[in-house]
Specification:
Elements: H1 2-6, H2 13-16, H3 19-42, E1 44-46, H4 68-77, E2 86-90, H5 97-102, E3 109-116, E4 129-133, H6 139-157, E5 161-165, H7 183-198, E6 204-207, H8 216-223, H9 225-236
Parallel strand pairs: 1-6, 2-3, 2-5, 3-4, 5-6
Helix pairs in contact: 3-4, 6-7, 7-9
Length: 239
């Protein structure tokens, strides 16, 4: 909790009224901070918890009370004049509106969101780069979109760390997603993001992001895709 306080993320009265849930989410945020620190040391690390990217400084939104991505990014930037630069790659099906808002005037954080345009949130915020996908977008077009933008972002922004929100709700069976990616499409997406950053020497910390299904076993397996992709990158890159 001490580390979370140093990140100076405002906590709303609404959040403070739910101490039990807020404590759990603080642990999740601490896990994202830890994953980021391990990534800086080892090159790649994965959290098994969420990317709560809809939370704003003064209110909760979209089932998100506290932005773990914002906490991690602010903590890792530090207070010195030579602050780390963080690229947030948000491939959840919903725009990371809270993250975009929090860092809209922060030059050391670049927010990149690929999301379904006709989906929550209704009122979008402005990320540093927003890519809006049409309903029903399938693997090939989606992966091509990511491939057309991620390399030049890494090469021009030159981050010290990538925070990757690997949401699985772009999946075709997701109940709130509206996109049509397959399991293999999600795997290829995660593999591409991780390998593209790691082979450039940029550390990556991942969070599992969102997903909605009544079949918990299928959803859990879907959430493990990023970890399996990370294991392959770890082996192939000799990490």
């Amino acid at each position: 909790m001490k580390r979370l306080r140093t990140a100076e993320i405002p906590v709303s009265f609404e959040q403070a009224e739910r101490p039990g849930k807020f404590m759990i989410l603080s642990v999740f945020a601490g896990g994202t901070v830890l994953a980021a620190e391990v990534a800086l040391q080892r090159g790649l690390a994965c959290s098994t918890a969420r990317g709560t990217h809809h939370a704003f400084p003064s209110f909760s939104s979209g089932f998100c009370l506290l932005s773990d991505l914002a906490v991690a990014a602010k903590y890792l930037m530090g207070d010195s004049s030579s602050r780390r630069k963080v690229l947030i790659v948000d491939l959840d099906v919903h725009q990371g509106d809270g993250t975009a808002f929090i860092f809209k005037e922060e030059p050391c954080v670049f927010t990149f969101s690929v999301h379904c345009g006709k989906n929550f949130p209704l009122r979008k915020q402005q990320s540093d780069l927003d890519i809006s996908m049409e309903d029903g977008t399938e693997d090939k077009e989606y992966l091509s979109t990511v491939e057309n933008h991620l390399p030049w972002l890494l090469d021009t922004f030159r981050p010290d760390l990538v925070l990757y929100d690997a949401g699985v709700d772009p999946h075709r069976e997701d109940e709130l997603g509206k996109l049509c990616l397959t399991d293999q499409g999600l795997y290829q997406r995660d593999l591409y993001v991780l390998k593209t950053a790691v082979t450039r020497g940029v550390p990556v910390a991942t969070v599992i992001g969102s997903g909605c299904s009544r079949d918990i076993d299928k959803l859990a397996l879907r959430h493990s895709i990023v970890h399996r992709a990370a294991a392959q990158v770890w082996r192939e890159c000799g990490m």
